[in-house]
Write a structure and sequence with these properties.
CATH class of the largest domain: Mainly Beta
Radius of gyration: 22 Å
Largest sheet: 8 strands, mixed
CATH architecture of the largest domain: Beta Barrel
CATH superfamily of the largest domain: L,D-transpeptidase catalytic domain-like
Order of helices and strands: HHHHEEEEEEHEEHEHHEHEEEE
Helix content: 25-40%
Number of strands: 14
Structural class: alpha+beta
Number of helices: 9
């Protein structure tokens, strides 16, 4: 089935030329040409032309929550037919102290990109009727050595008085958090926390550059070009989520590439977002399907990358 779909796609791209290609060289050659097409900025520029890039390149999230700590508000955007549309903005309490959270108990709300992990509706009355647990610390937070836990979006006390700040959470009115609960799909919601007002709109040119390089990295991986593959890594600052260094990673990948196995690698549900308050740093998340002669994997992949002279450099991977 996969080969049939591939051939149909190829026919649409190359018309009669691809039939001759198939007649002479078979599907493997066509597949390689299509993989090459995905590495071109021209492909991604065309693909992004009518896409909403208000927050970045987002394929699998319907709801975006933006917390602007400087304005003390939490704003919900929902994906419409053509773009993410602003739904509502709530007044919000955030951490007592300004700045990015770094250690347990520093009374700061983190800057970053987070998922909502679960909803809790049986909790102390101080937190109101419910709370949404965020994924702080995320993998980048851990890379930076941050500590702490329990960063929630929650309500206000139903029985106690409270201060006009939190210990690091985001707190909104109880009626508002009930509305939020009705309005969002928890599994398809991203929370972006900024230290100051966020300007909507991410450069399509920059996104096309990153996406083309993501697929260059994939192309080198599929076709066993070790030097090209490793050139996408920041050799000085790279660290895997499990703490492994670049030198270990290089040895590990060298052994794997030397097997010269045929591979199938698919990326779906791609998200590319500039990281709050970090210049030229992007978080890339996608679902990866990998299959070779000896190994198969299907699951989430996280890359933290920095653009250096417009070149994508991976400095953290999980």
């Amino acid at each position: 089935m996969k080969k049939l779909i591939l051939l149909l796609l190829a026919l649409n791209i190359y018309a009669t030329d691809i039939v001759t290609e198939y007649r002479l060289y078979g599907l493997a050659d066509i597949e390689k040409k299509l993989d090459k097409e995905l590495t071109k900025k021209s492909y991604w520029s065309k693909y992004l032309k009518n896409k909403d890039t208000s927050f970045g390149f987002i394929e699998n999230y319907t709801d975006i929550l933006i917390c602007d700590k400087s304005k003390s508000n939490l704003t919900l955007y929902k994906k419409g037919k053509k773009k993410y549309e602003k739904q509502v903005s709530y007044g919000a309490y955030t951490g007592k102290l300004k700045g990015d959270k770094k250690v347990e108990g520093d009374l700061k709300t983190p800057n970053g990109i987070y998922n909502l992990v679960k909803k809790i509706d049986k909790l102390d009355s101080f937190y109101g009727p419910m709370a949404f647990v965020t994924s702080y610390p995320n993998e980048y937070d851990k890379y930076l050595g941050k500590s702490g836990h329990g960063i929630w979006i929650h309500g206000l006390p139903t029985k106690q008085k409270r201060d006009s700040f939190t210990k690091g959470c985001i707190a909104i009115n109880n009626d508002h958090i009930k509305c939020l609960d009705r309005d969002i799909d928890l599994s398809k919601t991203l929370l972006l926390i900024y230290p100051k007002k966020y300007k909507l709109g991410v450069s399509k040119k920059e996104l096309a550059n990153i996406l083309s390089q993501l697929y260059m990295w994939r192309y080198a991986w599929i076709y066993n070009d070790l030097d090209k593959y490793l050139s996408f890594y920041d050799t000085e600052n790279f660290k895997r989520a499990d703490g492994k260094s670049f030198s270990w990673f290089k040895r590990h990948k060298t052994r794997i590439f030397n097997k010269n196995e045929d591979k199938q690698i698919l990326f779906t549900d791609i998200t590319v977002i500039p990281y709050p308050n970090k210049k030229d740093v992007y978080q890339i998340v996608f679902h990866e399907y990998f299959q070779s002669d000896t190994y198969e994997f299907s699951g989430s992949k996280i890359l933290m990358v920095k653009l250096k002279n417009n070149k994508m450099k991976i400095f953290m991977e999980k």
